[in-house]
Design goal:
The chain has 577 residues and is an alpha/beta fold. It has 21 helices and 13 strands. The strands form 4 sheets. The protein has a 4-stranded antiparallel sheet with strand order 1-2-4-3. The protein has a 4-stranded parallel sheet with strand order 6-5-10-11, with helices on both faces. The structure holds arginine.
Amino acid sequence: MADPLLSVAERLAPAFAAVAGTACDPVVRPSDRADAQANGALALAKSLGLQPREVAQKVLDAAGDLSDMLASTEIAGPGFINLVFTDSFIASQTLQALNTSTLGVHATPTPHTITIDYSSPNVAKEMHVGHLRSTVIGDALARVLDFVGYNVVRENHIGDWGTPFGMLIEHLIDLGEEAAAHELGMGDLNGFYKEARRKFEESEDFKTRARLRVVKLQGGDEETLNYWRTLVNESTRYFNKVYTQLGVLLTDDDLMGESAYNNLLAEVVERLNKAGVLEVNDGAEVVFADGFTNRDNEPLPLIIRKGDGGYNYATTDLACVIDHVERVGAKASYYVVGAPQAQHFQMIEAVSRKAGFLPDDCTLNHIQFGSVLGSDRKMFKSRSGDNVKLAELLDEAIERAAAAVAEKNPEMPASERADVARMVGIGAVKYSDLANDRVKDYIFDWDRMLAFEGNTAPYMQYAHARICSIFRRAGVERASVRSAQLQLNDPRERALAFRILRFDAAVWEMVDTMSPHKLCTYLFDVASDFTSFYEHCPVLKAESEEIRQSRLLLCDATARTISQGLALLGIEAPEQM
Ligand code: ARG
């Protein structure tokens, strides 16, 4: 536990408890006027019927000597306690944090299993930018949850089942398997899907064939299943190409498509029935959960099985809940899916609770996100008005990054530039997505995301590369400065060390709110604190060897924090730019 705010909260807790007569949160928060402030006296005063400043004083009296940790404690305003740490506490804590592989980030006390459903595109359909967001956000969350010690199970819930497969298979048969595989493998998923749809709509004959094909598929006809596998395999080959370009963790082992739950669907219906929640409504089997209504304010059902016997998207997700709880043993399930599916997941949760599929100690969490917009503030589309092809978008990112890097550092050899351009281009796309509050829409803007100034990937990567080059120029091995004494004589040194210590808090803020932008904001603060440190505190030309070593240690610590932070976001940090 590196975060000094946590340390001081722990230290003050017994004093608060003594005054309160029961456990009481000191409510330690960041402060503009001090290193931190404890706000707990305000709420406590209310319950004790005393003046907050008086309560704050009692707490300080009860706390006794804090001088090994705090240089000053001052009661301010209506009853906050302003806290300033001693330099030696900050220095020793920083050195301790830097000695750990997690840079001081504490592990979860409850390392249970968590599922995280992300990316989840649809077979024989182009991934759209919504899937890009899900992939990038989900991957960052999976990384950070793993980092703090949870047992993370990634799931790529691809849409690989259902009625459209009738028409898709018939279209595949028309084209010939080889030609169809080629088209899909090339990533022309949209062309394939649209053509199948067009035939379905225009030809009665094709429509009949498609319908019969669905029946065969559901009946487990071997030949039909083989065609279906071709569709799935060729599509996932294309998805994997995008995943490789993006550098995300997802592999074929994480595939948990809709088809994987097929065998559970009949059981879902049976169990809903047994639980006494299944009703017949308009010829369909449905469940009504409290609190959901349609536009006319009538109760809104979750449709489980349609009149024709077909199951729904929702039925599969109920099977998914059962699978998470009973097979995977997950205590929490996260679904990284766009905001338009909010009601779907609310209903899945409500019905799961009602039917007893989801025990009280398990959670279901929809991690929703807003849309990607073009510069015209409308849905982000290609120039032709089609969905943007992700593979092409990512190629363009790398090309643009190559140009930006060449301009910034014309001396870099071409071989190295290609690799750096990949890290910068992909990093820029990911960072610009992650740096925005995920629930909001954001505008896709090449120039902004590739800028070397501001809260961008290139800025963070450049700050990191610049530090690496300080060591290169000086011919100093980075690890060699890690045992130096840390001296915090200049306020900029102190501020930087304090910021680095708060990496623990920043990572946990991202975990607690499932919001990657919190970590981005923190990393931007680290880079800014480093910049003002570097402007005011000469490193290689420091006044003495001790100070030089101490400042090199701060440089190394900054670079480690930035590269670790970026790694948690799924972004690489080149050593040269
Ligand atoms: N395939 C769906 C889509 O493209 C997303 C699936 C999300 N996951 C889930 N368990 N429903 O909209």
